[in-house]
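WARN retry 2 of 3 for item q-0093 after timeout on previous attempt; input resubmitted unchanged.
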Amino acid sequence: MNTQAKDLWDRIIKNHSKLGVKGEEVLNLQPGATAEEFQLIEKTLNLILPEEMKSFYSIYNGQDWTFGVEPIVRNLTLSPISEIIENWKFLQEEFDPDDLFPDIEYGVDVKPMLWNRNWIPIAENGGGDYLCLDTDPTEEGVVGQVLYFWHDWGDRTTDAKGLFKFIEICLTSFSGCEENDSDI
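OK item q-0093 returned
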């Protein structure tokens, strides 16, 4: 088990623990993903998962969202692997991967596409926006970099160089909810 992933989970759980209620319950965390689930997602998405994702998901396989469940960080619910697959399939059907939009702001590390089939939508806000891991960056990018896919806003820039760094930024910022662009 990756100790960095375990440490991040411990901090997330501690931040969500309340008097008499454990963070695991408030977050409605699901048991860690199995080897079969990792194989299924890699086969379905036809890509290799970033190691940070595997380490993180091997401890808890996302959240089972129901009314009252708190977001893991910012306003995001961490999707279990089964939901990642469903969301990815939905996005594949919704967007032509060859569509380029000149009014979208792209970072130099993100390929200029409305949707890239090699983005893994690991978390969502319930409004059609997804936090994605990019497994197909430009030469200036890093495999596993984190970006938001906004359904109604053309920003396709990275928020962090990896999942662990993104979570660290969220945990060290005010209430885990504020934007922090430094040291991404």
